[in-house]
Amino acid sequence: MTQMLLTHDPRTGTAVAHHACTDATQIDQICQRARQAFFQHWRTLPAARRSEALLSVARHLREQLEAFAAAEAADTGKSLATARGEVAGAAGLWEYAAALARVEHTETLGSATGSGLALTLREPMGVVGLIVPWNYPLITTAERMPFALAAGCCVILKPSELAVGSLALLVAHLQQNPLFPADVVQVVYGVGKEAGQALTRHPAVDMIAFVGSTATGRAIETAAASCGKRVTAELGGNNQVLVYPDANLAVAADGVIAGALRNGGQACIAGTHVLVDPAVADEFVSQLQQALQRRFPASSSDAVPEGLQPMITLAHKQRIQSLVQAGLAQGGVALPGSRLDGPGHFLGPVLIDHVAPDSALREQELFGPVITICRVAASQFNAIVADNQYGLAVYVWTAASSTALQAVRQLRVGRIWVNADPEFWLPELPVGGFADSGVGREGGIRALDTYSLPKAAIIY
Ligand code: NDP
Which of 213, 216, 220 has the alpha carbon at shortest distance from 238? Predict the structure, then answer.
């Protein structure tokens, strides 16, 4: 009997849709067909035709923005406004990939060979298994799929079992779009340990592009390495926010609230852990509370503050609550206005002050609407960041360009925002992490290198 996935709206707990799981035999056939589509069609298609196909997807996303936004919001609990912004962001990534499809970074050596010619070509990796999480299905897919396609790869997508709807719409479009030959893009549905693992191990899959937790990413890296597959993995983060004494504290407070609580804090780049110099800590905490009040105006009749996003599952909510309770038991102080519980999947926002630098609360990725505040001298900020096992993102708030420059040069993290919140990002910039936050890079001007290898030739 076919197994079914049933997705739920985290706002209400009501069922959204059923999706039939792809069984092991079907996954095998999908992988074989992808390999054929790669060799017979997509690999050799002129770059301009691939570019045109990618642009048509961007157009479709913009034309059908409401349908994609509604599907993404229903599975994830995002507001429609947020989901609309993400669909537009995803379209921008498809457009950028379409432009890159026509740019080839190759070399020609005329004189090194004497009378011959030496040159390099870019050879696409082949079939890419793309495994994405539930928190940003369309964006994490758009950061990878169009670039893999632009490079000449075929893609098999595995959405999270918790958020399937917007990606099912995307794949349905790709499979009907006449500019994409059959089987260039396919999808497998199912739980990670079955459908995801089958893709990771299948011999017809040449590369895995993964976004998700560090534990799963590490397991995938190990499995893929044992059969020689390339892996890119963008993993968890535990991101610090450095508030220097010279920062504009009111602006920083608004930026911290926006950067930490976006998507209900369920974002790998959420700036959860604030380090603030004691000289300005009291003033900054007061500004933070005011900023929170502006973002989520309290009203005694509100069971849930307007604009707050629910946790994806009850189990996820309970995990965050128990981490918060442990942090409070270790001396953290919940600031007034914090909501340690809420109806259904809702929780927060929570501000916890006086968290010690070595508190367990600061060591794990919280992935929820929680901000911790640790009062510590600015001279120690960079050392504390360096101690972190993750290396995904850091936020720096300072008026001094020398402090900003020093942070940008010293910190080993994939992305640094100085005096800005994560609303500001560009497809032109690469994404990825250091240490436990992942391997490889996606996006940016060299994005196609991730999905291709140079091939060298000497011609006489
Ligand atoms: P998981 O690692 O649990 O899942 C991510 C994806 O991997 C899902 O599609 C999941 O499928 C699949 N999966 C699970 N187990 C396996 C397996 N053994 N083999 C192959 N695939 C598998 O992460 P979450 O869904 O919980 O997402 C949250 C995590 O993702 C956080 O740690 C967050 O930081 C990280 N993340 C990182 C981002 C980044 O850009 N750095 C962006 C977004 C999230 P299924 O869900 O069906 O089990």
Answer: 213
